[in-house]
Amino acid sequence: MKKKLRGFTSVFLVVILLSPLLSACSSKEPPQDIYILYTNDVHCAVDTDIGYAGLSAYKEWILGKTEYVTLVDCGDALQGSTIGTVSQGEYLVDIMNEVGYDFAVLGNHEFDYGMEQLAALLERSDAQYLGCNIRYNGSGENAAAALKPYEIVEYGDVEVAFVGISTPESIVKSTPAYFMNESGEYIYDFYGGSGEELYAQVQKTVDECLKEGADYVVALAHLGDDEASSPFRSSDLISGTNGIDVVLDGHSHSVIPCDILKNKDGEDVLLSSTGTALNNIGQLVITPSGNINVGLIGDYPVRDEKTDACIKDIQNLYEADLERVVAHTDVSLTTVSETGIRLIRNRETNLGDFCADAYRAVSGADIAIVNGGGIRADLHAGDITYGDILDVHPYGNTLCVAEATGQEILDALEMASRSVLADAVDGENAVGENGGFLQVSGLRYTIDTSVESTVELDEVGMFVSCGENRRVKDVLILQEDGSYVPIDPERTYTVASHNYLIKQGGDGLNMFMDNNLTLNEGMLDYQILITYIVDNLNGTVGDSYAKAQDRIVVI
Predict the structure, then answer these.
(1) pLDDT, tens digit, 9 for 90 and up, residues 468-484
(2) Which among 260, 371, 264 has a CA at the least distance from the CA of 11?
(3) Residue 464 CB: number of other CB atoms within 10 A?
(4) I want to staple 391 with a disulfide (CB 3.0 to 4.6 A). Which of 42, 53, 150, 377 is the partner?
(5) Which residues of 21-32 are buried (b: 16+ CB within 10 A; e: fewer)?
(6) Average pLDDT, whole number, for the chain?
(7) Distance CA 549, CA 362 (A)
(8) Local structure of 8: helix, strand or coil
Protein backbone atom coordinates (compact mmCIF):
# COMPACT_ATOMS: atom_id res chain seq x y z
CA MET A 1 0.00 0.00 0.00
CA LYS A 2 1.28 3.41 -0.93
CA LYS A 3 2.16 5.58 2.09
CA LYS A 4 -0.63 8.11 2.49
CA LEU A 5 -0.31 11.78 3.39
CA ARG A 6 -2.77 12.84 6.06
CA GLY A 7 -4.71 16.09 6.11
CA PHE A 8 -6.58 16.97 9.28
CA THR A 9 -9.21 19.63 9.86
CA SER A 10 -10.91 19.73 13.26
CA VAL A 11 -14.26 21.40 13.86
CA PHE A 12 -16.61 21.89 16.81
CA LEU A 13 -19.58 22.06 14.50
CA VAL A 14 -21.91 25.06 14.71
CA VAL A 15 -20.08 26.43 17.77
CA ILE A 16 -16.29 26.48 17.40
CA LEU A 17 -14.07 26.51 14.32
CA LEU A 18 -10.49 25.43 14.92
CA SER A 19 -7.69 26.30 12.54
CA PRO A 20 -7.14 23.86 9.67
CA LEU A 21 -3.92 21.91 9.69
CA LEU A 22 -2.00 20.35 6.82
CA SER A 23 -4.08 19.56 3.73
CA ALA A 24 -2.95 16.85 1.37
CA CYS A 25 -4.28 14.15 -0.94
CA SER A 26 -4.82 10.49 -0.23
CA SER A 27 -3.61 7.87 -2.67
CA LYS A 28 -7.27 6.95 -3.31
CA GLU A 29 -10.26 9.21 -3.75
CA PRO A 30 -13.81 8.15 -2.89
CA PRO A 31 -16.53 9.80 -4.98
CA GLN A 32 -18.27 11.05 -1.82
CA ASP A 33 -17.42 12.14 1.71
CA ILE A 34 -17.28 9.37 4.30
CA TYR A 35 -19.26 10.19 7.46
CA ILE A 36 -18.70 8.34 10.73
CA LEU A 37 -21.14 9.42 13.43
CA TYR A 38 -20.21 8.48 16.98
CA THR A 39 -21.63 8.46 20.51
CA ASN A 40 -20.30 7.43 23.89
CA ASP A 41 -21.50 7.11 27.49
CA VAL A 42 -25.16 7.57 26.62
CA HIS A 43 -26.05 5.74 29.86
CA CYS A 44 -29.70 5.14 28.91
CA ALA A 45 -30.43 8.83 28.17
CA VAL A 46 -32.70 7.83 25.31
CA ASP A 47 -34.77 11.00 25.02
CA THR A 48 -32.82 13.82 26.69
CA ASP A 49 -30.83 16.51 24.87
CA ILE A 50 -30.45 15.39 21.25
CA GLY A 51 -31.71 11.92 22.09
CA TYR A 52 -31.74 8.86 19.90
CA ALA A 53 -34.62 10.27 17.81
CA GLY A 54 -32.49 13.34 17.06
CA LEU A 55 -29.48 11.19 16.27
CA SER A 56 -31.58 9.06 13.93
CA ALA A 57 -32.91 12.16 12.17
CA TYR A 58 -29.42 13.57 11.78
CA LYS A 59 -28.17 10.29 10.38
CA GLU A 60 -30.99 10.30 7.81
CA TRP A 61 -30.11 13.86 6.83
CA ILE A 62 -26.48 12.90 6.26
CA LEU A 63 -27.61 9.89 4.20
CA GLY A 64 -29.26 12.42 1.90
CA LYS A 65 -25.79 13.82 1.19
CA THR A 66 -23.79 10.61 0.88
CA GLU A 67 -24.33 6.86 1.03
CA TYR A 68 -21.13 6.46 3.07
CA VAL A 69 -22.47 6.77 6.61
CA THR A 70 -21.46 4.59 9.57
CA LEU A 71 -22.81 4.94 13.11
CA VAL A 72 -20.70 3.75 16.06
CA ASP A 73 -20.88 3.78 19.86
CA CYS A 74 -17.90 3.86 22.22
CA GLY A 75 -19.43 2.14 25.23
CA ASP A 76 -21.61 2.55 28.33
CA ALA A 77 -24.86 2.82 26.38
CA LEU A 78 -26.87 0.03 28.02
CA GLN A 79 -26.77 1.00 31.69
CA GLY A 80 -27.41 4.09 33.78
CA SER A 81 -31.11 4.51 34.46
CA THR A 82 -34.33 2.62 34.96
CA ILE A 83 -34.94 1.75 31.33
CA GLY A 84 -31.72 -0.25 31.41
CA THR A 85 -32.26 -1.77 34.85
CA VAL A 86 -35.78 -3.11 34.26
CA SER A 87 -34.80 -4.74 30.97
CA GLN A 88 -31.19 -5.70 31.82
CA GLY A 89 -30.09 -3.63 28.84
CA GLU A 90 -32.43 -5.20 26.29
CA TYR A 91 -34.60 -2.11 25.70
CA LEU A 92 -31.47 -0.11 24.94
CA VAL A 93 -30.28 -2.65 22.39
CA ASP A 94 -33.71 -2.53 20.76
CA ILE A 95 -33.57 1.27 20.49
CA MET A 96 -30.01 1.20 19.12
CA ASN A 97 -31.15 -1.36 16.54
CA GLU A 98 -33.93 1.02 15.52
CA VAL A 99 -31.45 3.90 15.13
CA GLY A 100 -29.18 1.66 13.05
CA TYR A 101 -25.83 1.39 14.80
CA ASP A 102 -23.16 -0.43 12.81
CA PHE A 103 -20.41 -0.94 15.41
CA ALA A 104 -20.04 -0.62 19.17
CA VAL A 105 -17.55 -1.40 21.91
CA LEU A 106 -18.09 -2.68 25.42
CA GLY A 107 -17.77 -0.05 28.11
CA ASN A 108 -17.20 -1.21 31.66
CA HIS A 109 -20.91 -0.84 32.40
CA GLU A 110 -21.97 -3.15 29.57
CA PHE A 111 -20.77 -5.93 31.90
CA ASP A 112 -23.02 -4.86 34.80
CA TYR A 113 -25.81 -7.32 34.00
CA GLY A 114 -23.49 -10.34 34.18
CA MET A 115 -21.79 -12.44 31.54
CA GLU A 116 -24.81 -14.57 30.65
CA GLN A 117 -26.86 -11.47 29.95
CA LEU A 118 -23.94 -9.88 28.07
CA ALA A 119 -23.95 -12.82 25.68
CA ALA A 120 -27.70 -12.37 25.17
CA LEU A 121 -27.28 -8.64 24.51
CA LEU A 122 -24.53 -9.23 21.96
CA GLU A 123 -26.76 -11.71 20.17
CA ARG A 124 -29.72 -9.32 20.29
CA SER A 125 -27.72 -6.42 18.81
CA ASP A 126 -27.72 -5.70 15.08
CA ALA A 127 -24.46 -3.78 15.59
CA GLN A 128 -21.22 -5.71 15.52
CA TYR A 129 -19.45 -5.29 18.85
CA LEU A 130 -15.68 -4.91 18.53
CA GLY A 131 -12.96 -5.64 21.08
CA CYS A 132 -9.36 -6.43 20.24
CA ASN A 133 -8.16 -6.59 23.86
CA ILE A 134 -10.73 -8.82 25.58
CA ARG A 135 -9.27 -12.25 26.21
CA TYR A 136 -10.98 -15.39 27.53
CA ASN A 137 -8.90 -17.98 29.34
CA GLY A 138 -11.66 -20.24 30.67
CA SER A 139 -12.77 -23.70 29.68
CA GLY A 140 -16.53 -23.09 29.40
CA GLU A 141 -18.63 -20.87 27.21
CA ASN A 142 -17.11 -17.50 26.33
CA ALA A 143 -19.76 -14.82 26.86
CA ALA A 144 -17.78 -12.43 24.65
CA ALA A 145 -17.40 -14.88 21.76
CA ALA A 146 -19.44 -12.65 19.42
CA LEU A 147 -16.82 -9.88 19.58
CA LYS A 148 -14.55 -9.22 16.63
CA PRO A 149 -11.23 -7.41 17.13
CA TYR A 150 -11.85 -5.14 14.14
CA GLU A 151 -13.89 -4.70 10.98
CA ILE A 152 -12.83 -3.13 7.69
CA VAL A 153 -15.47 -1.24 5.70
CA GLU A 154 -15.14 -0.40 2.03
CA TYR A 155 -16.36 3.02 0.95
CA GLY A 156 -15.88 2.92 -2.79
CA ASP A 157 -12.20 2.13 -3.19
CA VAL A 158 -11.23 3.49 0.24
CA GLU A 159 -11.08 1.09 3.19
CA VAL A 160 -11.50 2.17 6.80
CA ALA A 161 -10.67 -0.18 9.67
CA PHE A 162 -12.60 0.08 12.94
CA VAL A 163 -10.71 -1.33 15.95
CA GLY A 164 -12.48 -1.88 19.27
CA ILE A 165 -10.69 -1.23 22.59
CA SER A 166 -12.24 -1.64 26.07
CA THR A 167 -10.68 -0.30 29.24
CA PRO A 168 -8.73 -2.73 31.44
CA GLU A 169 -10.43 -0.89 34.30
CA SER A 170 -13.60 -2.83 33.46
CA ILE A 171 -12.62 -5.49 35.99
CA VAL A 172 -12.80 -3.12 38.95
CA LYS A 173 -15.30 -0.65 37.47
CA SER A 174 -17.92 -3.26 36.78
CA THR A 175 -18.20 -6.37 38.95
CA PRO A 176 -14.91 -8.26 39.45
CA ALA A 177 -16.65 -11.56 40.17
CA TYR A 178 -18.18 -11.56 36.68
CA PHE A 179 -14.71 -12.00 35.21
CA MET A 180 -13.90 -14.99 37.45
CA ASN A 181 -14.77 -18.66 37.48
CA GLU A 182 -16.28 -20.45 40.47
CA SER A 183 -12.82 -20.90 41.97
CA GLY A 184 -12.22 -17.15 42.01
CA GLU A 185 -9.70 -17.22 39.13
CA TYR A 186 -9.89 -14.55 36.46
CA ILE A 187 -10.94 -16.07 33.14
CA TYR A 188 -11.41 -12.74 31.33
CA ASP A 189 -8.82 -10.02 31.04
CA PHE A 190 -8.13 -6.92 28.96
CA TYR A 191 -4.36 -7.11 28.32
CA GLY A 192 -4.08 -4.77 31.28
CA GLY A 193 -1.06 -6.17 33.06
CA SER A 194 0.71 -2.97 32.02
CA GLY A 195 0.25 -0.13 29.61
CA GLU A 196 2.80 -1.75 27.30
CA GLU A 197 0.80 -4.99 27.21
CA LEU A 198 -2.32 -3.12 26.11
CA TYR A 199 -0.44 -1.05 23.53
CA ALA A 200 1.21 -4.15 22.07
CA GLN A 201 -2.12 -5.91 21.64
CA VAL A 202 -3.69 -2.89 19.97
CA GLN A 203 -0.60 -2.42 17.77
CA LYS A 204 -0.82 -6.05 16.66
CA THR A 205 -4.42 -5.46 15.61
CA VAL A 206 -3.66 -2.18 13.84
CA ASP A 207 -0.79 -3.80 11.94
CA GLU A 208 -3.12 -6.57 10.81
CA CYS A 209 -5.63 -3.98 9.54
CA LEU A 210 -2.93 -2.15 7.60
CA LYS A 211 -1.65 -5.41 6.17
CA GLU A 212 -5.14 -6.16 4.89
CA GLY A 213 -5.16 -2.84 3.04
CA ALA A 214 -6.87 -0.37 5.34
CA ASP A 215 -6.31 3.23 4.24
CA TYR A 216 -7.44 4.64 7.57
CA VAL A 217 -7.61 3.18 11.07
CA VAL A 218 -10.26 4.49 13.47
CA ALA A 219 -10.03 3.26 17.07
CA LEU A 220 -13.34 2.96 18.90
CA ALA A 221 -12.16 3.17 22.49
CA HIS A 222 -13.57 3.19 25.99
CA LEU A 223 -10.49 4.42 27.82
CA GLY A 224 -11.05 8.03 28.91
CA ASP A 225 -8.68 10.77 29.99
CA ASP A 226 -8.96 10.66 33.79
CA GLU A 227 -5.56 10.90 35.47
CA ALA A 228 -6.44 7.93 37.68
CA SER A 229 -6.90 5.76 34.56
CA SER A 230 -3.21 6.02 33.58
CA PRO A 231 -1.57 4.12 31.83
CA PHE A 232 -4.79 3.08 30.08
CA ARG A 233 -5.97 6.50 28.91
CA SER A 234 -6.57 7.19 25.24
CA SER A 235 -3.61 9.60 25.27
CA ASP A 236 -1.38 6.84 26.66
CA LEU A 237 -2.55 4.49 23.92
CA ILE A 238 -1.85 7.04 21.20
CA SER A 239 1.69 7.76 22.44
CA GLY A 240 2.37 4.01 22.69
CA THR A 241 1.25 2.99 19.19
CA ASN A 242 1.42 4.02 15.55
CA GLY A 243 -0.84 3.59 12.53
CA ILE A 244 -4.05 4.88 14.14
CA ASP A 245 -5.51 7.98 12.46
CA VAL A 246 -8.35 8.82 14.85
CA VAL A 247 -9.34 7.70 18.36
CA LEU A 248 -13.01 8.09 19.24
CA ASP A 249 -13.20 7.72 23.00
CA GLY A 250 -15.51 7.24 25.98
CA HIS A 251 -15.42 6.36 29.68
CA SER A 252 -14.54 9.68 31.34
CA HIS A 253 -17.54 11.63 29.97
CA SER A 254 -15.17 14.29 28.64
CA VAL A 255 -16.27 16.70 25.92
CA ILE A 256 -13.39 16.72 23.44
CA PRO A 257 -14.30 18.29 20.07
CA CYS A 258 -10.82 17.52 18.77
CA ASP A 259 -7.41 17.12 20.35
CA ILE A 260 -4.34 16.53 18.21
CA LEU A 261 -1.78 14.24 19.84
CA LYS A 262 1.47 12.67 18.69
CA ASN A 263 1.77 8.93 18.27
CA LYS A 264 4.86 6.80 18.89
CA ASP A 265 6.40 7.99 15.61
CA GLY A 266 5.60 11.66 16.18
CA GLU A 267 2.67 11.67 13.73
CA ASP A 268 -0.60 13.47 14.39
CA VAL A 269 -3.57 11.51 15.72
CA LEU A 270 -7.00 13.04 16.30
CA LEU A 271 -8.82 12.35 19.57
CA SER A 272 -12.49 13.11 20.19
CA SER A 273 -15.20 12.30 22.72
CA THR A 274 -18.81 13.51 22.89
CA GLY A 275 -19.35 13.82 26.64
CA THR A 276 -22.34 11.86 27.90
CA ALA A 277 -26.10 11.39 27.60
CA LEU A 278 -26.26 12.46 23.94
CA ASN A 279 -25.35 16.04 24.81
CA ASN A 280 -23.48 15.96 21.51
CA ILE A 281 -23.24 13.86 18.37
CA GLY A 282 -19.73 13.20 17.17
CA GLN A 283 -18.95 13.47 13.48
CA LEU A 284 -15.86 12.28 11.63
CA VAL A 285 -15.65 13.12 7.94
CA ILE A 286 -13.06 11.80 5.50
CA THR A 287 -13.18 13.93 2.38
CA PRO A 288 -12.30 12.94 -1.20
CA SER A 289 -9.18 15.14 -0.93
CA GLY A 290 -7.97 13.22 2.12
CA ASN A 291 -8.82 15.70 4.87
CA ILE A 292 -10.17 14.33 8.14
CA ASN A 293 -12.70 16.59 9.87
CA VAL A 294 -13.64 15.77 13.47
CA GLY A 295 -16.14 17.68 15.56
CA LEU A 296 -19.29 17.71 17.65
CA ILE A 297 -22.87 18.67 16.92
CA GLY A 298 -24.21 20.29 20.09
CA ASP A 299 -27.85 20.61 19.06
CA TYR A 300 -30.18 19.13 16.46
CA PRO A 301 -33.88 19.97 16.86
CA VAL A 302 -35.34 17.53 14.32
CA ARG A 303 -36.65 14.17 15.60
CA ASP A 304 -37.17 10.98 13.64
CA GLU A 305 -40.81 10.00 14.16
CA LYS A 306 -40.28 6.25 13.84
CA THR A 307 -37.47 6.20 16.41
CA ASP A 308 -39.42 8.49 18.72
CA ALA A 309 -42.43 6.14 18.52
CA CYS A 310 -40.20 3.14 19.24
CA ILE A 311 -38.84 4.81 22.38
CA LYS A 312 -42.31 5.82 23.59
CA ASP A 313 -43.64 2.30 23.07
CA ILE A 314 -40.84 0.89 25.20
CA GLN A 315 -41.28 3.53 27.89
CA ASN A 316 -45.00 2.75 28.09
CA LEU A 317 -44.16 -0.84 29.00
CA TYR A 318 -42.94 0.12 32.45
CA GLU A 319 -43.81 3.76 33.18
CA ALA A 320 -47.03 3.02 35.09
CA ASP A 321 -45.12 1.24 37.85
CA LEU A 322 -42.32 3.78 37.82
CA GLU A 323 -44.70 6.68 38.44
CA ARG A 324 -46.20 5.11 41.58
CA VAL A 325 -45.42 7.28 44.64
CA VAL A 326 -43.64 5.27 47.34
CA ALA A 327 -42.46 7.95 49.77
CA HIS A 328 -41.87 11.67 50.31
CA THR A 329 -38.92 13.91 51.13
CA ASP A 330 -39.06 17.35 52.71
CA VAL A 331 -35.54 18.17 51.48
CA SER A 332 -33.58 17.69 48.29
CA LEU A 333 -31.03 14.89 48.52
CA THR A 334 -28.19 15.52 46.12
CA THR A 335 -25.02 14.20 44.53
CA VAL A 336 -23.81 17.67 43.50
CA SER A 337 -22.68 21.03 44.80
CA GLU A 338 -24.86 24.14 44.80
CA THR A 339 -23.46 24.96 41.36
CA GLY A 340 -24.16 21.51 39.98
CA ILE A 341 -20.67 19.99 40.21
CA ARG A 342 -20.70 16.28 41.04
CA LEU A 343 -19.40 15.71 44.58
CA ILE A 344 -20.63 12.22 45.41
CA ARG A 345 -17.29 10.69 44.33
CA ASN A 346 -15.01 12.94 46.36
CA ARG A 347 -17.03 14.42 49.23
CA GLU A 348 -19.74 13.50 51.68
CA THR A 349 -23.21 14.58 50.50
CA ASN A 350 -26.60 14.41 52.18
CA LEU A 351 -27.77 11.78 49.68
CA GLY A 352 -24.66 9.75 50.47
CA ASP A 353 -25.49 9.96 54.18
CA PHE A 354 -29.07 8.90 53.49
CA CYS A 355 -28.10 5.87 51.36
CA ALA A 356 -25.50 4.67 53.85
CA ASP A 357 -27.93 5.13 56.74
CA ALA A 358 -30.48 3.03 54.87
CA TYR A 359 -28.04 0.13 54.55
CA ARG A 360 -27.08 0.32 58.22
CA ALA A 361 -30.63 0.68 59.54
CA VAL A 362 -32.15 -2.08 57.41
CA SER A 363 -29.29 -4.51 58.11
CA GLY A 364 -28.61 -3.69 61.75
CA ALA A 365 -24.85 -3.58 61.06
CA ASP A 366 -22.32 -1.54 63.03
CA ILE A 367 -21.36 0.54 60.03
CA ALA A 368 -22.38 0.87 56.36
CA ILE A 369 -20.42 1.90 53.31
CA VAL A 370 -21.75 2.76 49.84
CA ASN A 371 -19.54 3.60 46.86
CA GLY A 372 -20.22 7.06 45.48
CA GLY A 373 -20.14 5.74 41.92
CA GLY A 374 -23.17 3.59 42.71
CA ILE A 375 -25.35 6.58 43.66
CA ARG A 376 -26.50 7.87 40.30
CA ALA A 377 -29.27 10.47 40.68
CA ASP A 378 -30.69 13.08 43.03
CA LEU A 379 -33.96 12.91 44.98
CA HIS A 380 -35.72 16.25 44.74
CA ALA A 381 -37.98 17.58 47.48
CA GLY A 382 -41.52 16.27 47.15
CA ASP A 383 -43.01 12.91 46.31
CA ILE A 384 -40.63 10.05 45.58
CA THR A 385 -41.65 7.52 42.96
CA TYR A 386 -40.48 4.00 42.37
CA GLY A 387 -38.65 5.30 39.30
CA ASP A 388 -36.88 7.99 41.34
CA ILE A 389 -35.49 5.35 43.69
CA LEU A 390 -34.41 3.15 40.79
CA ASP A 391 -32.55 6.11 39.29
CA VAL A 392 -30.57 6.51 42.53
CA HIS A 393 -29.65 2.81 42.62
CA PRO A 394 -30.03 1.42 39.07
CA TYR A 395 -27.75 -1.59 39.39
CA GLY A 396 -29.91 -4.13 41.20
CA ASN A 397 -27.19 -4.92 43.77
CA THR A 398 -28.17 -6.90 46.86
CA LEU A 399 -27.69 -6.22 50.57
CA CYS A 400 -24.76 -8.01 52.24
CA VAL A 401 -23.28 -7.80 55.73
CA ALA A 402 -19.73 -8.98 56.41
CA GLU A 403 -17.70 -9.36 59.57
CA ALA A 404 -14.53 -7.27 59.24
CA THR A 405 -11.69 -6.18 61.46
CA GLY A 406 -11.09 -2.56 62.24
CA GLN A 407 -7.89 -2.81 60.20
CA GLU A 408 -9.81 -3.96 57.11
CA ILE A 409 -12.17 -1.05 57.52
CA LEU A 410 -9.21 1.34 57.81
CA ASP A 411 -7.73 -0.15 54.63
CA ALA A 412 -11.04 0.30 52.83
CA LEU A 413 -11.25 3.97 53.83
CA GLU A 414 -7.64 4.54 52.76
CA MET A 415 -8.25 2.89 49.39
CA ALA A 416 -11.44 4.88 48.84
CA SER A 417 -9.79 8.20 49.77
CA ARG A 418 -6.61 7.85 47.73
CA SER A 419 -7.64 10.33 45.01
CA VAL A 420 -9.26 13.04 47.17
CA LEU A 421 -7.82 16.54 46.76
CA ALA A 422 -8.08 19.54 49.07
CA ASP A 423 -10.39 21.24 46.60
CA ALA A 424 -13.33 19.25 45.27
CA VAL A 425 -13.88 21.37 42.15
CA ASP A 426 -11.80 23.18 39.58
CA GLY A 427 -13.88 25.55 37.50
CA GLU A 428 -16.70 23.48 36.01
CA ASN A 429 -15.11 20.12 36.82
CA ALA A 430 -14.97 17.84 39.82
CA VAL A 431 -11.40 16.85 40.75
CA GLY A 432 -10.05 13.98 42.80
CA GLU A 433 -13.00 11.81 41.81
CA ASN A 434 -13.08 8.08 42.42
CA GLY A 435 -16.16 5.89 41.92
CA GLY A 436 -15.03 3.89 44.95
CA PHE A 437 -15.14 6.92 47.27
CA LEU A 438 -17.18 5.75 50.26
CA GLN A 439 -20.26 7.40 51.69
CA VAL A 440 -20.56 6.09 55.25
CA SER A 441 -22.86 5.56 58.20
CA GLY A 442 -21.78 4.82 61.77
CA LEU A 443 -18.36 6.38 61.08
CA ARG A 444 -16.56 9.68 61.30
CA TYR A 445 -13.07 10.40 60.00
CA THR A 446 -10.72 12.97 58.49
CA ILE A 447 -8.91 12.82 55.14
CA ASP A 448 -5.60 14.69 55.26
CA THR A 449 -4.85 15.61 51.65
CA SER A 450 -1.37 16.86 52.55
CA VAL A 451 -0.39 13.19 52.92
CA GLU A 452 0.37 11.51 49.61
CA SER A 453 -1.47 8.24 49.17
CA THR A 454 0.61 5.11 49.80
CA VAL A 455 -2.00 2.69 48.48
CA GLU A 456 -0.55 -0.05 46.28
CA LEU A 457 -2.67 -1.78 43.64
CA ASP A 458 -2.17 -4.97 41.67
CA GLU A 459 -2.16 -5.18 37.87
CA VAL A 460 -5.96 -5.06 37.61
CA GLY A 461 -6.44 -2.24 40.14
CA MET A 462 -7.26 -4.26 43.25
CA PHE A 463 -6.01 -3.19 46.69
CA VAL A 464 -2.72 -4.78 47.82
CA SER A 465 -1.47 -2.69 50.74
CA CYS A 466 -0.66 0.79 51.97
CA GLY A 467 2.15 2.27 53.99
CA GLU A 468 2.18 3.38 57.60
CA ASN A 469 1.71 7.05 56.71
CA ARG A 470 -2.01 7.25 56.03
CA ARG A 471 -4.25 10.07 54.88
CA VAL A 472 -7.32 8.78 56.75
CA LYS A 473 -7.11 9.84 60.41
CA ASP A 474 -9.21 10.04 63.56
CA VAL A 475 -11.60 7.24 62.60
CA LEU A 476 -14.44 7.01 65.10
CA ILE A 477 -17.22 4.42 65.43
CA LEU A 478 -20.77 5.40 66.45
CA GLN A 479 -22.04 3.80 69.68
CA GLU A 480 -25.61 2.93 70.67
CA ASP A 481 -25.79 5.94 73.01
CA GLY A 482 -24.86 8.32 70.18
CA SER A 483 -21.25 8.84 71.26
CA TYR A 484 -18.21 8.03 69.11
CA VAL A 485 -15.10 6.06 70.11
CA PRO A 486 -11.86 5.39 68.20
CA ILE A 487 -11.91 2.38 65.91
CA ASP A 488 -10.07 -0.69 67.23
CA PRO A 489 -7.96 -2.30 64.46
CA GLU A 490 -8.14 -5.67 66.25
CA ARG A 491 -11.86 -5.71 66.89
CA THR A 492 -14.42 -7.33 64.58
CA TYR A 493 -17.28 -5.16 63.33
CA THR A 494 -20.23 -5.84 61.02
CA VAL A 495 -20.14 -3.91 57.75
CA ALA A 496 -23.21 -3.46 55.54
CA SER A 497 -23.02 -2.70 51.85
CA HIS A 498 -24.02 -4.53 48.69
CA ASN A 499 -22.70 -7.57 46.88
CA TYR A 500 -20.69 -5.40 44.47
CA LEU A 501 -18.44 -4.18 47.30
CA ILE A 502 -18.64 -6.96 49.88
CA LYS A 503 -18.49 -10.07 47.68
CA GLN A 504 -17.14 -8.89 44.35
CA GLY A 505 -14.43 -6.41 45.24
CA GLY A 506 -15.95 -3.56 43.28
CA ASP A 507 -13.75 -0.49 42.71
CA GLY A 508 -10.80 -2.58 43.89
CA LEU A 509 -12.12 -2.80 47.47
CA ASN A 510 -11.30 -6.48 47.88
CA MET A 511 -10.63 -6.58 51.64
CA PHE A 512 -14.05 -8.09 52.47
CA MET A 513 -14.30 -10.72 49.73
CA ASP A 514 -13.20 -13.69 51.86
CA ASN A 515 -14.89 -12.59 55.08
CA ASN A 516 -17.72 -14.32 56.87
CA LEU A 517 -21.12 -13.04 55.76
CA THR A 518 -23.87 -12.61 58.31
CA LEU A 519 -26.25 -11.58 55.51
CA ASN A 520 -25.66 -12.96 52.03
CA GLU A 521 -27.51 -11.08 49.27
CA GLY A 522 -30.73 -9.89 50.83
CA MET A 523 -33.05 -7.27 49.40
CA LEU A 524 -32.22 -5.25 46.29
CA ASP A 525 -30.50 -1.88 46.66
CA TYR A 526 -33.50 0.23 45.72
CA GLN A 527 -35.70 -1.79 48.07
CA ILE A 528 -33.30 -0.91 50.90
CA LEU A 529 -33.94 2.81 50.31
CA ILE A 530 -37.72 2.39 50.12
CA THR A 531 -37.79 0.20 53.24
CA TYR A 532 -35.71 2.72 55.20
CA ILE A 533 -38.00 5.61 54.37
CA VAL A 534 -41.23 3.69 54.98
CA ASP A 535 -40.24 1.66 58.04
CA ASN A 536 -37.63 3.84 59.75
CA LEU A 537 -38.63 7.36 58.68
CA ASN A 538 -42.41 6.83 58.61
CA GLY A 539 -42.59 7.53 54.90
CA THR A 540 -40.88 10.92 54.89
CA VAL A 541 -37.25 12.06 54.71
CA GLY A 542 -37.05 14.94 57.16
CA ASP A 543 -34.94 18.00 57.90
CA SER A 544 -32.15 15.96 59.53
CA TYR A 545 -30.95 15.27 55.98
CA ALA A 546 -31.07 18.90 54.86
CA LYS A 547 -27.28 18.90 54.57
CA ALA A 548 -24.32 16.54 54.89
CA GLN A 549 -23.70 15.59 58.51
CA ASP A 550 -19.92 16.16 58.77
CA ARG A 551 -19.01 12.49 58.90
CA ILE A 552 -16.11 13.01 56.49
CA VAL A 553 -13.85 16.03 57.01
CA VAL A 554 -11.35 16.87 54.25
CA ILE A 555 -8.36 19.03 55.14
Answers:
(1) 899 999 999 999 999 99
(2) 260
(3) 12
(4) 377
(5) beeeebebebee
(6) 92
(7) 20
(8) strand
pLDDT at 309 over 80: yes
Phi, psi of 415 (to 5 degrees): -60, -45
Residue 522, CB-side half-sphere exposure with 13 Å CA sphere: 17
Rounded Cα–Cα distance for residues 169 and 174 (Å): 8
**Which residue, 480, 242, 518, is CA-closest to 400?**
518
Query: Domain extents for the chain?
Result: 7-315, 322-554
3-class DSSP assignment, residue 540: strand
Q: Would strands 463-465 and 540-541 be described as parallel, antiparallel, or unpaired?
A: unpaired
Distance CA 354, CA 393 (A): 12
Residue 54's identity, in one-letter code, is: G
Backbone torsions φ then ψ of 546, nearest 5 degrees: -60, -30
Distance separating alpha carbons of residues 387 and 393, to the nearest angstrom:
10
- Give me the CATH topology for the region 7-315: Purple Acid Phosphatase; chain A, domain 2 (3.60.21)
Please write the tens of the pLDDT for every residue from 276-287: 999 999 999 999
For domain 322-554, give the fold: 5'-nucleotidase;  domain 2 (3.90.780)
Amino acid at 213: G
